[in-house]
Amino acid sequence: MVMNAAGNLLFVSNEVSSSVAVYSVNSGTGALSLVAGTPVSLPPNPVALAVTPSGKFLYVVNSNLGSVFAFSVASSGALQPVAGSPFASGAGAFALAIDPNDKFVYVANSTADTVSILSIASNGALIQVSGSPFATGTGPVSVALSTTGQFLYIANQSSNNISEYSIDSTTGFATEIIGSPLTAGTAPSLLVTDPDGTFIYVASQTSKTITPYTILSGTAATTTSGAGGLTTTAQSVTIDSAAGGIAVGK
Questions:
Q1: How many domains are contained in the chain?
Q2: Closest by alpha carbon to 183, among 155, 151, 146?
Q3: Residues 205-243: pLDDT tens digits?
Q4: Does residue 53 fall inside a structural domain?
Q5: Is residue 183 part of a domain?
Q6: Which structural domain, as residue segments, surrounds residue 41?
Q7: CA-to-CA distance for 116 and 174, rounded, in angstroms?
């Protein structure tokens, strides 16, 4: 599930029934009402979705097709397919994140061991940027961006590490940070960014831990870990197997 920034629409990916539903949210009670015209049917295995910070577009990744489905979002929450959708990503497209400026979509392709960078056109269409997709760790299954959009993090479930990148704000291209990849718990499967931009939380499925890491600022960078690199807080906690998570502001 994902909610738009205004907090009045909730989007739900239904993997088994192969559809996307949209609900309007009652601001007083939190009650949900299904938006007319949804659920919208999709090919099998729509596994993740994200809405742009502006709320104008919704993107859904389909692992079977290695593609991203794009929809424009009306003020009512009604969905309209974007011309040219779906857009190719990579084999096993599994997770995605959108930069805070509505400019780029980053997709983890778990089977291909790559990350795709797609620029967002004014009509919501997606265009592969030069050099995309690029290789990352083995089995990438989660994507997170820093709140500024300067840094990108990929959880590589099969290689038990986190790839760390700095982002070119003009091209969207990712350059690996000094010290990347960072060793994580066994089978890291979920990344969540602190809204204050200070921490990244990593849930590791097999070791059953959540570990917070500090995002290094430029002044805290070292010769072994560049700006945007992660350093452990040594505050790991043990959990049952995590399937999802979200960070909330203070």
A1: 1
A2: 155
A3: 898 889 899 998 765 555 556 678 888 876 767 766 555
A4: yes
A5: no
A6: 2-135
A7: 10
